[in-house]
Design brief:
alpha/beta; Rossmann fold; 12 helices; globular
Amino acid sequence: MKEEAAQASFPRVISTMLGMMSGTPSTTKEVEGMMKALPATSGMVETFMLEPCIREVGLPFLEMSISYFQNLSNAHKEGKKIAFENFNFPPAILYAMDVVPLSPEILSSFLSMGVPKGVFRFLDYTTGIGIPESMCTAQRGGVGVILSGLIEKPDIVLNMASGSCDTNSKMFDFISEYLDIPFCNIDAPPYWDEGGEMLRYYQQEYRKLVAFLEEQTGNKLDEDKLRQCCKEAKKQDEYVAEIYDLRRAV
């Protein structure tokens, strides 16, 4: 199955995007030529390149996406650890400690967005090794990519989905055992009390996470860098909130 997966379309998606950004076409004719040469990603190319209102934000999105995958590809070469983490994990701590995040949901999303039927072979792969179909589909596609060897093997597993998604959490238990890599679970309190016992409990869990990362990576948490990362994350949250406000008018 690994040999079959090695011929899958996921690597072509990444190389296609890299090619798109290395020489961004400026005319409709150039875009149409690219769509003929790369039919598997024609829908994505057409949307990002030909729709003026989308192109303005689509190209920066592609640039950020390429940067994400390049960081994954270069992590071990640069002596950095890769952390298998879920989509609701706050990445600021990881970036502050030079740890590269690997989210299976992102892998599944790009497969679904850029490659016809690209995610299904990886869903089948996970089913073949015993992962039930009732587990999170958004994760299973990305997990299939990882377990089939198309992405660098993660070094650690981090989970923050406790209480919000049980199947999400169990996938991280499985990956830790299946790949025999260290696992840290951040427990979420059952309710929130501003400044109370639950907040202190959550703070304690974060301190546990930092201690775990320092032990596994050999890096100390740079608080100044963490503040900078958190400041950037807050800015992104504000943009998301603004987008949701604008959607009310649609």
